[in-house]
Amino acid sequence: MRLRTAATAATVLLTAASLPGAAGTARAADPGPAVTRVADTQLDPQAIYFVSYDGLVNNNSFQKNGLLTYKGHQYAAWYTADRTAVVARRALGASSWQTVRLAHRLSTDDSHNVISMGLSRVDGRLHINLDSHSDGFFYLKSAAGLLDDPAGRAWASDAFGPVQTTLDGLALTSQFTYPQFVATPEGRLQLSYRAGVSGNGRNALAEYDGTKWTALGEWSGSTGTYTSEHGSSTARNMYLHGIDYGPDGRLHAFYTWREQSNAVMCHNGGLTNHDTGYVYSTDRGRTWRNQAGTAVGTTGGSDKVTVDDPGTVVDPLNPDHSLMNQESQATDSTGLPQAIISYVPGRFGQCTTGYAADRTAHGRAFHLVSNAAGDWKKTEIPVPLDSSQRTRLVLDKYDNAYAVLPYGRIAAASKSSGYTDWKTLYDAGALNAFGEVVVDDTRLAQDGVLSYMYQRKSSGTTPSALRVIDFRLPS
């Protein structure tokens, strides 16, 4: 695997070309990144608010999906002030939301216990998984066809089935965390989750075909020995930056490893996260391969993706820089993967002693992109994080990259520059947002709008407003 930095290799891509059949004329260059704010609507004036693990339960950026768009309607899910789970919808462009209160209340003040939504296109159902952190989960789904005919189907509580503690009878694990739904190209729905606990867990998949759920099994391993210059660890978990299908049907997954033992760090106030890895699957998540195409793991089989698999690390980094887990990823229109990672660069010191404070003071986000030859280029986004929290990555129709930073700030870089011209497009100061935001990964391709959900800062456990803001991108 080859890694290049912007300082050593910046390739400017040509974006003007001759138009067929029109000698002497040239097509205008594709537009660069731009944002135009078009709306800011309120979901809830009094959503639940408490800070846990540096985050909010309604706005952890790793939710997939806290916002979801399909057939001209957008869907949102959250917990309101009385802890009730809520799901809402609106027609795209509408200022008001229709809300349904679900028969479940948040069980504990833990920001991991997010609500995630998914869509099974094979039967038009909305699926919801919620309220879990290394314990049992809760699940429900809508009536068939509810999302296929939003104008003709009432948005009411009786459109949803009962709350379950299995997937329609399929029990997965007693230590369940991080539900992420992903739709397959055929319209089936997959559920990614972690079995186990932080520092000793495995990623797994289940799949819904429109009739039933099937457990595909675990695909990452927690065993083996990782040794740093400080010490060793014999257990870990893989934290996904995402799991997404590209336009060619390839399933992409960036990740970082978290070691169980603090012995691998220079100081126990840091994070045991290390290295950015990447694998992909061409058979709907059954077999996992490194960038060179070598199989490195099988879902449900004895050979899992492990910390010592060759050719999987695309950006090496030791555990001394408070590398963040569960950042973000995207795939461009040609099927090439990109990711954002963040940590404290070495110029600020080679040992973080308090990850939250050090990341807030010195943390920076970096953009990783692969070319067709398998070279990886890494560019620092020149905007201080000013936060311990995560950044989200999205691409517009021209493959320009947008980083939605903590507090809702937006920075962007053009594809034509080789993603080297990062600059701030929206400073978000007026939002008074807490930190991380939940981006609608599904909307941009449908109407050219970047939407994200944010919650206003509060104090203690005083509820605050939860809102969705929309930006028009180049189209």
TrEMBL record:
Domain of life: Bacteria
Pfam families: BNR_4
UniProt keywords, alphabetically: Signal
Signal peptide extent: 1-28
SUPFAM superfamilies (alphabetical): Sialidases
Protein name: Tat pathway signal sequence domain protein
Organism: Streptomyces corynorhini
Taxon lineage: Bacteria, Bacillati, Actinomycetota, Actinomycetes, Kitasatosporales
